[in-house]
Amino acid sequence: MVRLTAAGVNFKDIYERGGRAALRAPFVPGGEGADTVLAIGADVTGFHPGDRVAWCAAPGSLRRTRRAPRPCRGPRPRRHPGRRRRREHAPGPDRPLSDGVRLPGYPG
């Protein structure tokens, strides 16, 4: 189980919001995130509660807490504290969003 502290919003999320993706409402948007491990299962190795991790290619990543997704999962560098947003493979400038930002077209 992980707690979300940072998430990416990208073109896929815009397509989903605009109805151009094969998803039916209600759904949880998002595909990548970074967070802290809250708890691990008996069969999990290599991670411990309190570890900081990041992932990509995991639909529903904008949940506040969730089971850890498998694709692209890995340790998050310690030099990137939770309040700073990390950017990789981004062709344009990143724009940090404050807590409580609502995306048009998404409930909540």
Strand content: 15-25%
- Report strand order across the widest sheet: 4-1-2-3-5
* Number of helices in the DSSP assignment: 1
Per CATH, the class of one domain reads: Alpha Beta
Overall pLDDT: 68
| SSE pattern | EHEEEE
Distance separating the two termini: 22 Å
Number of strands: 5
Q: Kindly report the CATH topology of one domain.
A: Quinone Oxidoreductase, Chain A, domain 1
From the helix content, strand content and strand pairing, which structural class follows? mainly beta
Question: Radius of gyration from the CA trace?
Answer: 14 Å
| Portion of residues within helices | under 10%
> What is the CATH architecture term of one domain?
Alpha-Beta Complex
Overall 3D form: elongated
The main sheet comes to: 5 strands, antiparallel
CATH superfamily of one domain: Medium-chain alcohol dehydrogenases, catalytic domain
Low-confidence stretches: 83-92
What does this structure look like?
With 108 residues, the chain is mainly beta. The chain has a 5-stranded antiparallel β-sheet, with no helix packed on it. It is elongated and about 40 Å long. The protein has a domain at 2-75: Alpha-Beta Complex (Quinone Oxidoreductase, Chain A, domain 1), CATH 3.90.180.10. Helix content is 6%, strand content 18%.
